[in-house]
Prior knowledge:
This protein has 358 residues and is of the alpha+beta class. Helix content is 16%, strand content 36%. It has helices spanning 8-14, 26-40, 141-153, 162-178, 262-266, and strands spanning 45-50, 57-63, 66-73, 85-94, 100-104, 112-118, 124-129, 181-187, 201-206, 212-219, 225-230, 242-251, 285-286, 303-304, 306-316, 320-333, 336-341, 346-352. The strands form three sheets. It has an eight-stranded antiparallel β-barrel with strand order 1-2-3-4-5-6-7-8. An eight-stranded antiparallel barrel has the order 9-10-11-12-15-16-17-18. Strands 13-14 form a two-stranded antiparallel sheet. It is globular and about 75 Å long. The two termini are 28 Å apart.
Amino acid sequence: MSGKHSGVSARLLEYGVQFSKGARTESYFYNIYTKVLIRYGHMLGIWQLERGPYGGLVNIKFIDGKLLAVECFPPVDPHVTHPLRLEELFSIGLTENYTVEIQCLGGFCGPHPGKIKQEGDDETITFKCANHEKHRHPLGLQQDLARWIAQERNYSMESVLLHEEELHALKFEALQKSRCRYKLKGLCMPEFKPGALIQPGIFKGHYGSHGVELMMLTYDDEKSEALVTKITGDPNVPANKVSIRADLHRPIILNQEQQRSINLMEDIDFPEPSPDVAVHNLPEQPFTIPDDCIERYKYPPKTCRARFHGTGQIAGHGFVDPALSPVHWIVFDEHTFGTLWMELRCFSMYSRVHENLT
């Protein structure tokens, strides 16, 4: 590049944008840098969408000459190992005349104008669609609900149970309210933890009739506690709440027979572990789902790397009467862990999100 365009190539790389001569001109990349990336480039990365108790995960990348915001939905229950479901939200790019164009990509009638308001600290942004009518289903609200249930749970409205119907209605209403206006808050991926049994990151996990939700696995500074925090949530335990705490100083070792029932496990007097036992020195052990437990995953591994005492957050609807319930936190491999909810008599499986969200 030359003249006023000089040095823009290196600056583009700061945002992960590669300059290449071809269909795009030097002037185009100069305008992309000065009008889009300088003003909106800080938005690249992952964000948490504020949507009542449900939350949401949004990834913003530079693709095909524009910033593209995509909401990342969990896979359909119970397929925690399946990829995320993606839905485009908005884009920020340039018109042919090099003016900034913000478009809402939701709704049923193609791209249409949108607006972005940035807070002073750049940690919060608000998106607003300029045309609410574009988000109305052409066949009415009932058809919109039926379409959403088919996507969300992969079955028809006729097969929805009464309790599930109430949950679906609440979530659909929250989605409706946030279609045209929503707030995003910056979300940071946790750093690599040397020596961790399973590296931190984003996971997909089962939560009963609420379906699959997105979690962030982190550790405290001493790596003595693992924390599983909700990125997406539900009316019982909403987004941003810690769902599971595992005490890494309290490992559990069980044989196959001891896992036959939760009642049997609750009667075991576990010895205090030696303080100098490192988690990496724990022996591999058998794993089986107890007979008196509800399965939420049909084919769990037959062995696990480690198992720990912990607590899980439970609550009534509206996060009423929150309480901590005993759990076993079970690490299977680098990409999979599980939670055995002792009082609830159920087992939940969690699988790492492998999509590149950075």
